Amino acid sequence: MSDRTTIGVGMVGYAFMGRVHSQAWRSVGAFFDLPLAPRMAVLAGRSKERTEAAAAQLGWADVETDWRELVKRDDVQIVDICTPGDSHAEIAIAALQAGKHVICEKPLANTVAEAEAMVAAAAAAQGRSMVAFNYRRVPAIALARRFVEEGRIGEIRHVRAQYLQDWIVDPEFPLVWRLQKDKAGSGALGDIGAHIVDAAQFITGQNVLGVSALTETFIKERPLATESAGLGATGSAARGEVTVDDAALFIGRMSGGAVASFEATRFANGRKNAMRIELNGSLGSLAFDFEAMNELWFSTGGGGFERILVTEPDHPYVGAWWPPGHGLGYEHTFTHEIKDFLEAVATGADPSPSFADGLRVQRVLEAVERSAADGSRYTNVED
Amino acid sequence: MSDRTTIGVGMVGYAFMGRVHSQAWRSVGAFFDLPLAPRMAVLAGRSKERTEAAAAQLGWADVETDWRELVKRDDVQIVDICTPGDSHAEIAIAALQAGKHVICEKPLANTVAEAEAMVAAAAAAQGRSMVAFNYRRVPAIALARRFVEEGRIGEIRHVRAQYLQDWIVDPEFPLVWRLQKDKAGSGALGDIGAHIVDAAQFITGQNVLGVSALTETFIKERPLATESAGLGATGSAARGEVTVDDAALFIGRMSGGAVASFEATRFANGRKNAMRIELNGSLGSLAFDFEAMNELWFSTGGGGFERILVTEPDHPYVGAWWPPGHGLGYEHTFTHEIKDFLEAVATGADPSPSFADGLRVQRVLEAVERSAADGSRYTNVED
Amino acid sequence: MSDRTTIGVGMVGYAFMGRVHSQAWRSVGAFFDLPLAPRMAVLAGRSKERTEAAAAQLGWADVETDWRELVKRDDVQIVDICTPGDSHAEIAIAALQAGKHVICEKPLANTVAEAEAMVAAAAAAQGRSMVAFNYRRVPAIALARRFVEEGRIGEIRHVRAQYLQDWIVDPEFPLVWRLQKDKAGSGALGDIGAHIVDAAQFITGQNVLGVSALTETFIKERPLATESAGLGATGSAARGEVTVDDAALFIGRMSGGAVASFEATRFANGRKNAMRIELNGSLGSLAFDFEAMNELWFSTGGGGFERILVTEPDHPYVGAWWPPGHGLGYEHTFTHEIKDFLEAVATGADPSPSFADGLRVQRVLEAVERSAADGSRYTNVED
Amino acid sequence: MSDRTTIGVGMVGYAFMGRVHSQAWRSVGAFFDLPLAPRMAVLAGRSKERTEAAAAQLGWADVETDWRELVKRDDVQIVDICTPGDSHAEIAIAALQAGKHVICEKPLANTVAEAEAMVAAAAAAQGRSMVAFNYRRVPAIALARRFVEEGRIGEIRHVRAQYLQDWIVDPEFPLVWRLQKDKAGSGALGDIGAHIVDAAQFITGQNVLGVSALTETFIKERPLATESAGLGATGSAARGEVTVDDAALFIGRMSGGAVASFEATRFANGRKNAMRIELNGSLGSLAFDFEAMNELWFSTGGGGFERILVTEPDHPYVGAWWPPGHGLGYEHTFTHEIKDFLEAVATGADPSPSFADGLRVQRVLEAVERSAADGSRYTNVED
């Protein structure tokens, strides 16, 4: 490691996403032969006490209580944005203008306008920028992409994508920030629908051209959270309005001629993180469910569907880890993402997914919202 | 059997559906304690030679080459209609007017107008009438209905239904009658989409209120079939236009507040008969896939999904068959249907699904077609 | 059907096995193009009243209350033995000596000596004889045999077979005939262990050479059954000794060099009819579980295992039935068995499995019992 | 972290096991609230160059080329032994005598005599000692143990354990150290059979009392490895004898009355790391397969088997990680192991599994070898 150039990382936010990003920064060098050795330099958070505790636990050398200070620091070359979507644009643009490389959690922004500003800033900047659609780095999904590129399922006819969770089924679950439009932009749509739109576009290599959509908020009011909190937040007696969708369903057309069906919900009781995608092509099919993330199902169209255990050395990312059959977990998708990002930074290549990819997803989400508001009418995704 | 009154059955058509209905008529009395003993009296088909051969193989005592003759016969009290959809209305109405009981293959008719006429005829007739949505008689689906009725999954939030087949993926598969609008009414929509609409309405006890739809015909022209033939038909050099949908996708709302997603396609490579439905409720979830037809998946919303092997004596229909773990097959759904129909005939009760249920499905299909033609706009199902 | 020669069938016994055999005799001609048309001539049972009721329900034309009378009748050319194992030898030998063809339920007999006498009678007779190991006729198992014959999994290294049921887990389940050594010969070993030994030998084409075994009776005493009854028998206050094994485990060697593991139990709580077999070969593997009887799992040794839905037209037996994805059930294994038996009768070919095959299984069971009684010592299967 | 006492760790060996242990030492503090903060002080290996490279990559501060030096160092309080089994006893005893805590890879030793010496040394020492049967720390296995302790499956009747791999199916795979008796002690038996014996004893809380066993070496000679190498080793023209088993099968009895079946093999083509265990009890059953490591299957004996996604906050170890449905991987079993070990070191409690637990497994393996050598005769496990 001593021979490699080290590169300083500053991270903003230390909740769920900050914890998993930290684990990736900490681990990536032990498994991948990297061109740059990341140094976990600074963690930024609003509360000094909490940020220091988080930095100690997660392994960051220093803290800042204002992300603006983090962005200015000379020992930070990479800014990793793990905050809610409402601050993405401001932080990312400032970091890019300060000459930093930026990796930003998804969705890229809460609005198309913000996302466009971020893409413009990225285009004008010297640093690399990436939006963290980590599911692209599930080995099984990367393998699905490889199969499609190799033409193994032929011309794609159907995309069938669902992201099913159930963590707000209880009407007494409180009104956390993810249920407030001003913070989160949208509900299931932006939080998890964004992932399946990105995955569908990534695996197929096609864009969503247009959609017909329907959204629903099953529980209109919830107890106020005692603070803007995570999943474990406890409610209070006062209630507030849920301002985002609980579920979003849309059907549409892809640029290559496929028809597509999408569904994102937090009300699929018993489904914990069922991020699923199935593609049917003229020569075969592929199917994936994140609840069994080490498996990819592949058919060449006869009576069979092959369960591929995606733990073979020649599968994407897998060779760096363990022998066959020794599966990976959720966190490793982030390790792979950081690895790819560091390689892009080192070579100057455009990371995938870029901010432009993030904007493309944002435009689809925006078309979904317009269609849902306009009688589900088929609505083109704008360019 | 000698103590029971026998009842004469006449069947029209002897292709795929006729074969499976025959097996049900032949077997039902050996397993269920019936109020009426069916006698397989007459089979009707156009070609005398072929009809006689079919009758000999399938166990029918006599033949007619004109269904009008069959409908008149005194030894026929039940008319079983196994023809393509374009002749359902005419045969069913004639049979009802002749005082017969009628069981008719699905979809009830090719148009709403025909279906309405059939419902009117049924209302005016003395005989019982049933539309053969056989999937209601899959024990797992009947068990799902029982669970919903018992409130075990609570208030239903999501219906997610798919019917995936792949038998016309090959562009050289010929233009059989199921691909011609004048014979079949529609394509995947009426053939298999009808089943999932009926199953969704049956299990939830709710109606589809409105839909937003999109249909597609991937292969626009196919070789002409050498004759109006079954799945094994061979093509010829001449080509004709495919006039039905290859796939139909629609999203919508149910009368109880659930949102719903439907997809019917014959282009899901590797999916042979994946008639799937998942319900998510406030207390739990249910999931089914006909490719594993003896299983029902049930969750009460924690981290678990229970695979219920629906072969226990107290499961619907199962007690009449074998010990636990000795599964049933496709044909038994028809045996159950015939059993329920005979009981309704004996008691004078209204069979389920009635012609009215069939009309309700037809109205949903019609709304799907209108929405698809009108920019996927949300379209109410008319009453 | 009229062109074919009819052949009269007499069946002895009408309990569980008699019901499923009747359904096969009744149905086989409607699906398979048979050289002989079976006529369900006579059913034999001890109670006249019950036998007549069974005959009426199951479709037999006449009854006898003594199987000796049935065996003598001129309108009976085939004798189908569906009684407990203690009467197999006597009935089968008498039928063969009377010039009849014989199909006999498994296990062939309760002792090796009886089975040897049956094989000798079969060798001396003009009639064909078959032992009804119906699992050979599961399409997925027949397909597994085909794959092995074609060399697709190479040289077989491992056989791993289990037959798991749970119907006597409850200590209050009564002492039915299947739990009495004088009637049933043995417990799980002969009832279900016989099936996996036959399946292993059939699929691999190899014999079990020797075994090391261990048996156990978990519940030593049970309520006496009110009569020698089926699964639904109710118990009484008096108790009797369970004289058969509840579970049998054995490991051994096959004639082709594979090692093998077998387990038969009625105490695998939650497993209803999990008749499972897995083969690992030098080139690939095969796996099957009857609880999902329409599936065969196949690997060529990489990271994948293919779930083959055994419902394609070119799969064994399947072409006679329904389109792909429309699965078969337990009863169809008997329909296939009867079909193969009728073909063997018509052509004079030796049916498979023959009485000699049944004897071979019997010798394995006998070696298991000797090993279990002798400190699990490795025990050769005698020839 | 600064408030906690740090504790120095020295690790011997840096191959597969060393890599995964390093990741656990590096990560554990970020997720668990530990009483002691581990410091990755020293890595020992024979080649200075390679050890330094490994230390740099894996995050160890210093290196030694002789483990005896490592054991003496004052900055090392914990010795982590990741070498082949032939050196375990010597290193562990020296470390314990030097006052260190010891965590040692499994199997504890290559012989019972060595294991006994280690247990004696552990008893006499002040340090804590643990054998690294990491599968005890799979959340699903820990949950299975909890269910058994709570009596949820009742009295255990059956244990059915398999460990299936396929990495030496190819006869040209070279003669690596794991195929040599002097280095590895035994083959599949000690390497993976040890894991299922330990898991069976752990989950049931019962000991294996006696066994009847059979072992086999399918490929007797293999190309010599170019050096004592890992899985990727390439062969040479010269060949050597394989001196360990390729597969071991054994059946036996547990101290609580259950019968048990075990199979360990590296010739199960297509099975990559199928470490499977199923328990059947008087009230229910449990089943696990490591290839789907985040799932535990649970039945209460009706027709259902529940797939529990072991990612809920109240499942063992899981609360420290991610939200439900965001699965863990192979490496986390080691993180959990290290966490439990550090807690035992801090409190002075006996770690689980202790060296005594490791010895108990060793005695079972030794009984297996004696039985296999003695005609599979039932052989008591000695105490």
TrEMBL record, chains A, B, C, D:
Residues 7-133 form the Gfo/Idh/MocA-like oxidoreductase N-terminal domain. The keyword Oxidoreductase applies. The keyword Transit peptide does not apply. GO terms for molecular function: nucleotide binding; oxidoreductase activity. Keywords: Oxidoreductase. Residues 143-286 form the GFO/IDH/MocA-like oxidoreductase domain. PANTHER family: BCDNA.GH03377. This is Dehydrogenase. It comes from Nonomuraea thailandensis.
